[in-house]
Amino acid sequence: MLSRNRNLYKVAGYAEDRGFMARRAKPQESSALSATLRQTVEALREASLRCAEGELIGSEDELIARHKVSRPTLRQAAALVTAEQLLQVRRGVGGGYIARRPTGRAVTHMAAIFLRARGASLDEISQSMAPIRAELARLAAVNLDDTSRQALNAFLQSEADANAEAGGFPTFARSELEFCRLLGASSRNHVLSLFFDILFDLAASMGPGHDIFLGRPERVKAYREQRMRLVEAILDGDPNVAELLARRTSELTRPWHEEKTALAARAASLVQ
Questions:
Q1: Are residues 127 and 240 in the same domain?
Q2: Picking from 7-21, 90-104, 123-137, 226-240, which range would have the lowest pLDDT averaged per residue?
Q3: Of 99, 119, 141, which residue is a domain's last?
Q4: What CATH number is attached to the domain comprising 141?
């Protein structure tokens, strides 16, 4: 799929440059063809964003007539917009070009891969997550509604049940993922929520060797207690206290991240 997408970008007059697709005119293709393809891609993208998810944008013949392009050009453009998860092509009777929306999981996963490829460190993740977590907590307290309140109360109850059952690391890891998603949803800030999810996904992708909680039940216990206080502050609707406790949560884990980073650097130096 990746190689196919790259070939399509090359047809459109693009080539890789510093990890991105940078525009490059191909000598054997006319600039008019490249411009037509780019315009068709933009038109399909905008049409999808104007439509509701699952809504028919048009049949292939309708879109060829609407954009005054050839069938191969439309299909090349559609393939590019499909790769962005904004389009679905249904063939056959009753088919056509259907609007769709990217999944958050796909976006965060690819962004996490990009950051790993650029050598993002555990220390960078920790430093970046701290202010985002604090702002999300503040916004969650400000925007508290019945839906968020119900979900947060359910989370507290599940945490109490897990503590009573002495749940291990897998239970804690699942609860942390649930809390991060809940915090993002309660904040009602899609941008910060996305950034937070990307960083969380990046941290998870680094594997057990970089996990600051694995095999350290005392850390899990201390973090869980701090996290529960944070949830209670959000439920109280106190944005200042919620922000303060979120910062304290980050401060609690900072030395653990620094220790893990130092151990990894020491191990790398021994290998060299």
A1: yes
A2: 7-21
A3: 99
A4: 1.20.120.530
Contacts for 131 with CB less than 8 Å, ≥ 6 apart = none
Q: Sign of torsion, CA 186 191 195 200?
A: positive
What pLDDT is attached to residue 174?
86
Measured CA distances, 207 to 46, 178, 181, 213, 218 (Å)? 38, 19, 20, 12, 20
pLDDT at 206: 79
**Residue 23 domain boundaries:** 2-99
The strand pair at 14-17 and 96-99 is best described as unpaired
Average pLDDT in the 237-249 region? 96
Nearest one of 156, 172, 267, 261 to 222, comparing CA atoms? 172
Is 186 found in the same domain as 166?
Answer: yes
Counting Cβ atoms within 10 Å, is residue 252 exposed (0-12), middle (13-18) or buried (19+)? middle
Question: What is the percent of the chain where pLDDT is above 70?
Answer: 84
Instruction: Say how far apart CA 30 and CA 43 lie, in whole Å.
Output: 20
Report the share of the chain in percent with pLDDT over 90: 51
Q: Is 267 exposed, middle or buried (0-12, 13-18, 19+ CB in 10 A)?
A: exposed
3-state secondary structure 82-96: HHCCCEEEECCCCCE
Rounded CA separation 78/92 (Å): 16
Contact by Cβ (8 Å): 196, 111: no
Predicted TM-score (pTM) of the model is 0.67
- Scan for tokens 């893990």, then name that residue: 260
